[in-house]
Amino acid sequence: MVALPVPLLTGFWEEGLVRGFLLFVLLAAALRSGRGPIAAVLGSSVVFGLMHAVNVINGDPAQVASQVIYATFIGVCFAALLLRTNALWMLVALHFLFDVDSALVPDGGGGDGGGGGFGVAGVLLTLPLALYGLWLLRNRGADDGAVNAAPDPTPAPAPARS
């Protein structure tokens, strides 16, 4: 069984790198080029999914391919949640729960030493998460600026007196 600090550190590292850094780099680039946040969400999610391809070293390639796909789907949902809530800690906690659950499931070939080998079932179970993430981003265009931007703290100009 995996010690609890390992999935916690994995969640902290992956969420910090992909959602805490990469997503916002891609978001800034997407907004500068006139694309909306969905481009940044999809880009960071594909990177997140591909990060799991390294598990092919110790696992069945078909199982790892499904892991890459469902990690991408989870990434879409997590990125949308971050843009809507600005709560990276919540994603670290959710990631931790996914990893602990994966470690408790008998190894299905995911290659990560724990579970992770959910195959087609993993893809089908996480597809709704990706669709939910895209739904959260509906009506969010390139003119939105930051998706969950804080209000501008500068005071409005005083009305002109005549």
Strand content: under 5%
Structural class: mainly alpha
Oligomeric state of shown chains:
single chain
Helical percentage: 55-70%
Shape: elongated
C-alpha Rg (nearest Å): 18 Å
Topology as a string of helices (H) and strands (E) = HHHHH
Count the E strands: 0
- What is the number of domains? 1
Tally of helical segments: 5
Task: Provide the descriptors you would attach to this structure in a database record.
single chain, 162 residues, mainly alpha, 5 helices
Q: How are the SSEs placed, and which strands pair?
A:
Blueprint: H1 5-32, H2 37-51, H3 61-85, H4 88-104, H5 119-136
Helix pairs in contact: 1-2, 1-4, 2-3, 3-5
Detailed description of the structure:
There is one protein chain. This protein has 162 residues and is mainly alpha-helical. The chain has one domain (5-140). Helix content is 64%, strand content 0%. It is built from five helices and no strands. It has helices at residues 5-32, 37-51, 61-85, 88-104, 119-136. α1 (5-32) packs antiparallel against α2. The longest helix has 28 residues, at 5-32. The relative contact order is 0.17. Mean pLDDT is 79; it is low at 108-115 and 148-154.
Outline of this structure?
The protein has 162 residues and is an all-alpha fold. The chain contains five helices and no strands.
